[in-house]
């Protein structure tokens, strides 16, 4: 090794030693000198429902359990008008005879009837349908002719024994009276006033059977014309007598409550009996 190289190596070693010494003597940085990253603190919130200390006293009801009390106490059909198509409350106050006649039906004393419609209640094309429904109810073998002592014939010119009139609800109420706050039909001195509200909406007792209710309505009021009075339900599940006020109820208890303040000619017993709806005076007769 030459003298020049030895000098270079010595100088490099001296320089390295000086650098190391300077680094060791340099002051260590404080916490204020070094920025510390801020770490957000996250707090976890867990809701834990405490376990019961003891099991429930009784198991939850199953699908086969008894029905709720509300289902057991379902309301019986009442006197309120069922929902349905709107009916004009007022007519013009006068009736037009619907043209049409029939042959005699039944044997015995012949009673004539006419079919009439209060003007303004239904359009003209609906009047014949009312007449046809009246004829069908009166001519049915389960009707009043089954007794063998009465017959009927429809007339449209001669003076009838009884007039059957489709009538606006307000006219019917004014004629039948306001003792009962419900839409009803009635028989008054040779005239059957059929409430249009009932004719087009029926009664709750008939559970939507409008055709059956219409037959009942005609036969009930014709029964009054023949001198029959009201009757109660005779036995649970029996067909309601046609002279029972089925428009209001087919339950004796319910009917007794409804007419309590407005007697209808016959005392209705509170005996728990409920019938099924029936439109015929003689339902046992075969058609």
From TrEMBL:
Residues 63-75 have a biased composition (Low complexity). Residues 47-88 are annotated as: Disordered. Residues 52-62, 76-85 have a biased composition (Pro residues). Keywords: Membrane, Transmembrane, Transmembrane helix. Pfam families: DUF3152. The chain crosses the membrane at residues 6-23. Residues 81-283 form the DUF3152 domain. It comes from the Bacteria. This is DUF3152 domain-containing protein. It comes from Lentzea flava. The lineage of its organism: Bacteria, Bacillati, Actinomycetota, Actinomycetes, Pseudonocardiales.
């Amino acid at each position: 090794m030459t003298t020049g190289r030895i000098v270079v190596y010595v100088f490099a070693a001296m320089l390295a030693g000086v650098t190391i010494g300077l680094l060791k003597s340099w002051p260590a940085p404080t916490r204020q000198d070094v920025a510390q990253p801020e770490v957000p603190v996250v707090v976890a919130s867990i809701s834990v429902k405490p376990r019961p200390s003891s099991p429930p006293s009784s198991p939850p009801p199953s699908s086969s359990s008894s029905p709720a009390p509300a289902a057991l106490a379902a309301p019986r059909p009442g006197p309120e008008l069922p929902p349905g198509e709107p009916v004009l409350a007022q007519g013009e106050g006068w009736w037009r005879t619907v043209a049409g006649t029939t042959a005699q039906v039944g044997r015995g004393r012949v009673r004539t009837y006419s079919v009439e419609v209060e003007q303004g209640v239904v359009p003209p094309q609906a009047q014949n349908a009312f007449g046809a429904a009246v004829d069908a109810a009166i001519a049915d073998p389960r009707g009043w002719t089954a007794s063998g002592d009465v017959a009927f014939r429809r007339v449209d010119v001669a003076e009838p024994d009884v007039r059957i009139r489709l009538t606006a609800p307000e006219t019917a109420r004014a004629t039948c009276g306001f003792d009962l706050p419900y839409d009803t039909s009635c028989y008054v001195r040779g005239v059957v006033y059929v409430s249009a509200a009932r004719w087009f909406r029926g009664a709750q007792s008939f559970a939507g059977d409008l055709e059956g209710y219409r037959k009942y309505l005609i036969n009930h009021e014709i029964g009054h014309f023949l001198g029959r009075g009201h009757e109660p339900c005779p036995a649970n599940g029996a067909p309601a007598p046609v002279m029972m006020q089925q428009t209001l109820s087919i339950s004796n208890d319910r009917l007794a409550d409804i007419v309590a303040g407005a007697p209808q000619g016959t005392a209705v017993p509170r005996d728990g009996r409920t019938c099924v709806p029936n439109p015929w005076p003689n339902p046992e007769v075969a058609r």
